[in-house]
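dumping these here so i dont lose them again. two proteins, back to back, each one seq then structure tokens. dont judge the mess
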Amino acid sequence: MNTFYKIFCFIMLLYGFTSCKKDKLITDSGAKISFSNDTLTFDTVFVNLGSTTQFFTIRNQNKQPINISKIKLAGGESSNFRINVNGDAVSEAANIIIPAKDSIYVFVEVTVDPSKGKLPFVLFDSVQLETNGNKQQVILQAWGQNAHFFNGEEIETQTWNDDLPYVILNSMVVKAGHTLTINQNVDIYMGPNSGIFVEGNVNILGGIDSADYVVFRGLRLDNDLDGTPYDIIPGQWLGIFLLRGSQGNTIENSELRNGSYGINLGSASIEDIPNISVANAPDLSLKNVVIKNMAFYALFGFLSIVNAENVLLHSTGLSTLAVQVGGDYSFTHCTFYNRGNQYLEHKDPMVYLSNFFEDRDNNLLIRADLTKADFVNCIIEGSLEEELVFDPAEGAQGTAGFNKQFKNCILKTKLDISDPSFADCKKNLDIKFLDRLKNNFRLTAESPAKDAGIITAVLFDLDNQMRDANPDIGVYEFIP
């Protein structure tokens, strides 16, 4: 073998080695891919059979090739969506290599036939990818059928009926002097970070049967990367906000779930605090309402007026009920419960009552009387040792501006319930709910809440069952 040939072979060997080294896949878990869009929206409303196509790119911005070990359409073959990855029509593919500083196309087509049953108004799916152990996704959404869409609008007096779903994007305002009426069996789907802000007033009037409730929930109908339905994940939307001066509000036979603030009454900016008074306190009548799985509060009142009957509030990230700057509150046959879950850490006591508000530097900004905070035949039960916090302004007790009363309630507390503000109450008992892990707060025959209440004007329970002469404590009457 001559010298030239040896040198040539060595050069080729070196070239092959360096080429392989140059093309070596990046396997660092910190190396990810990026997308031209994180959400692909098909904004055509499908009222007839039709299809449309869009695309996004998957980018490898690393200095080495990267391997997408798995790319799939989460809905699989049954999805209304179809994908084409780099020229191949698939529902799932593996080991797709993208060269350094390069990208590939993913085309997405959606086909909808509205004649095939009752489609959801928005179709959701996702393209899910796994790279170096990292799970990422691109959300796919398309309007599957017609609906009433509100996008950042300010509305005047109107009535919503059960003809089509209602979709609220980028929030909605009910203007001062106007009324929004929502009748039974209406479903309201709220977009991310969207709320209903009420300057005027609302009358939300669901049907007595839970199947006819008015329901507020998030827009997402699909699952997250771990396969968990978004419908059980809190924080999907903001909440209902009754602003200062919003009076004559009613919410009956309704459910609010998976938002952030539930129902918020009377909040104001620091600049507006000097204008806050009892005269502009928002008011609300709540009857037969479920508020659950909220990232922060179920019910928050800031110098407001609330009358609640048969209201179930459970599973919140902060207090289930929070009252600041006093007001007037009445709760009859209500159940408050919190233990936390995989999305919510239960650290704050469920019921917090105060009659003042301070800034971050503990400077008192406003104080107003807690004229009344009455709890009758209520359950306040949770996983903390103390689920009640009373926080009056200095020197404010009783008729001085902080009035609370608990009658025939079962409470989770370390407080001395021999105090006159607790009448015929019990504490720290096992309520014996039917199945608290599944959030079924109906009572068993052995529950200490059974026959322990007093007769009130609230004659029917949350299931529309008549209470007997010895009513049970909480929202549900035990029915053998």
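---- next one ----
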Amino acid sequence: MIIDELGYISFDKESAKLLFTHLSLRAGRASTIVTSNSSFDRWEEVIHDLVLTAALTDRLTHRAYMIDTVGPSYRILDTKEWLENSSV
């Protein structure tokens, strides 16, 4: 399962619980990829429950590979290249 842009939109309490339950059931059984522009310490602002956020990040990071990327947006770079090569 791939969760793209976790943290872009806030969760209500019920949605956060459903996500936690789903990810808990997958833990240790299936691969999960999560992308986010927010660091873990900001996820509580999206999930709105400190304990649930801690439990969720604990499950996601257990035996996980984490890749932290820093740099300019690939979409902006692609758009600049596209504009340079277009006939506009």
